Amino acid sequence: MSVKIYIPGDSGAVALGADRLALSMQKAVRAQNLDAVIIRNGSRGLYWLEPMVEVETETGRIAYGPVRASDVDGLLAAGLLEGGDHPLLLGDPEALPFLKRQTRLTFARCGITDPLSLDDYRKHGGLAGLTNAVAMEPKAIVTQVTESGLRGRGGAGFPTGIKWNTVLEAQAPQKYIVCNADEGDSGTFADRMIMEGDPFLVIEGMIIAGIATGATKGYVYLRSEYPHAILAMNRAVVIAREAGVLGASVLGSDHAFDMEIRVGAGAYVCGEETALLESLEGRRGVVRAKPPLPAHKGFLGRPTVINNVISLASVPVIMDKGADYYRDFGMGRSRGTIPIQIAGNVKHGGLFEAAFGMTLGELIDDIGGGTATGRPVKAVQVGGPLGAYFPRELFDTPFDYEAFAGKDGLIGHAGIVVFDDSADMLKQARFAFEFCAVESCGKCTPCRIGSTRGVEVADKIRDGIETESQITLMTDLCNTMKFGSLCALGGFTPYPVMSALTHFPDDFRPTPGMKSPMPQAAE
Amino acid sequence: MESRSMDAEIASRTEAIVGRLKPLEGPLLPILHDVQKEFGYVPKAALPVIANGLNLSRAEVHGVVSFYHDYREAPAGRHVIKMCRAEACQSMGGDELGERLLGLLGVDWHGTSGDGAVTIEPVYCLGLCACAPAAMVDGQVISRLDEKMVTELARAVKA
Ligand SMILES: Cc1cc2nc3c(=O)[nH]c(=O)nc-3n(C[C@H](O)[C@H](O)[C@H](O)COP(=O)(O)O)c2cc1C
Ligand code: SF4
Ligand code: FES
Ligand code: FES
């Protein structure tokens, strides 16, 4: 049998040269007449080692990385196909501390299987959850998801089972499952990775949601910035349909479910669930007032489940291994595992799935290895552009919804962006306002106008004009936005601004003798 | 300027797209995506055809086109660079690289260079935040950008 060589097709690996590498490998394999096939797997999520190549040897998988196209000849000469020694040899990938310390439930297959092989998916436990679900009463599925303690991974942390129950109980001739794959938060890429690396998992989760709530049609609203994920999901849907996983008779059962992939058009606010529905229906992505909830009146006015990609992708393991199995991980009211994305100025950036409860410090210092530049960490932003900046003094905060809320922050979609000591927190606060101004849907005055005012105020502070009164004005603006905004874009922009102001007050005040110092980054 | 015969050409090609996608639930965004793919932008002459086909007013269709950052109302340059300006890329010096690129090409954000070679658009996160700074050039993703790569990129798109 041919030796399998795995070269990730994940866009993060591709951005680091994986396509060029795969091409060189293919050429060399052919030229040297080697008995090997190249599989474009997902990424394991160790981005500082990407492109990470793995070969399947008799003793298991052996990894090399980061591999460039120019390394191919050397690797083959060193006996790549037998796991031969080479300076880039990493050994058993699962023994690497970054992977070994994880608890991979949702990402169990990502980076291991061929993303578009349904056989591979089945062989690695795929469809086991759906197989159980098709034999269950809808109510029993909803109960199992509720008992697992799963909360929405899109940001708000709302219990998934409770949302599903509302849709189950709603009476309508047509209900929908909408998968929110708009993933606009900076520092997040878990949705992207799972759609590229294990697309059938998202499909399986959506079908289970459909059976549980009586919805027979699903849509994935996928941002246009993710062309690789769009391609992978579209291909996976076709394959699943041909195999009878999707269609009039899901896995040969009486349940019908089919789905489509829809592409967004570059508007951050369309990640907000009601703006998303507007967009899906073909209108401007303007936020709707609630009630009615999407669960009652969603897509085309019909009962609709809207869940984040990772919420849906976490359901199959719950249906496979049971609610207790999932719930036994975690702390407090944050149950199960969460795929944490470590990003920005960090040495070991990537995807780290773990039970809730690890501290921010462990994640950044131990797992992430500190900054990429080697300078001290100054701040980390958790939860995307609407999340707070945390200073080192708060690094003992455990990853838990309530613990973060208790420190005036949020977990959001679980992205962590690390900044070194060259960061200027006034500049970051200004950007938060600017981003809000660019992406506002325009419905609320505090969001639309307040954000632009915020940028002006930040500029005055930078120029040292009436510093203290401008800081008071910035604080007032934040209060107005917080309480006068319909959705979290306007309502949470105060988090990054106020956390920067509270934890890094010096960055907002002129240094004697020097106006707005901008420390020079290390070479 | 779009001439009359060009308008007719645009209208007929748009009509084909509308005819194909109209049966979808919520067909407008898929139609606009395909129109932009077809022409490289969403031409004015396409709007009445879309509006007619979907029973909308022209103003409604225009309102949707103008809301979304992706839709262009004029053709882009021969190359399109989408440079990430979001936080993770900022933390790795993305702002400075962005400024540098704009300077080298003599354009501002959303601008197209005078020779029509390149359009630069800001983008807020490409999901490549663990290997920042990142950009997309004519649909191809690149990451861990540095000064040298940006200089090369500017030269390549100008060539
Ligand atoms: C401005 C804004 C942007 C959002 N972006 C996303 C997003 O990209 N993905 C997502 O899943 N949820 C996003 N949300 C949250 C959604 O409104 C909603 O809570 C979520 O999709 C529900 O799914 P979940 O319960 O599975 O988390 C956003 C919310 C706001 C206010
Ligand atoms: S807060 Fe901003 S984005 Fe949200 S509904 Fe109001 S104007 Fe729209
Ligand atoms: S997005 Fe509606 S005003 Fe800018
Ligand atoms: S912030 Fe630039 S790729 Fe995510």
What features would you highlight for this structure?
heterodimer; A: alpha/beta; Glutaredoxin; Rossmann fold; five-stranded mixed beta sheet; 16 strands; globular; B: 159 residues; alpha+beta; 2 domains; four-stranded mixed beta sheet; elongated; binds flavin mononucleotide; binds FE2/S2 (inorganic) cluster
Could you please describe the fold and organization of this structure?
The complex is a heterodimer of chains A (523) and B (159). With 523 residues, chain A is α/β, with parallel strands linked by helices. Chain A contains 22 helices and 16 strands. With 159 residues, chain B is α+β, with helices and mostly antiparallel strands. In chain B, 48% of the residues lie in helices and 11% in strands. Chain B is built from seven helices and four strands; from the N terminus they run ααααβααβββα. Chain B has a four-stranded mixed sheet, with helices on one face. The longest helix of chain B has 18 residues, at 4-21. The mean pLDDT of chain B is 96. Chains A and B meet through α1, β8, α12, β12 and β16 of A and α2, α4 and α5 of B. The complex binds flavin mononucleotide, iron/sulfur cluster (SF4) and FE2/S2 (inorganic) cluster (2 copies).
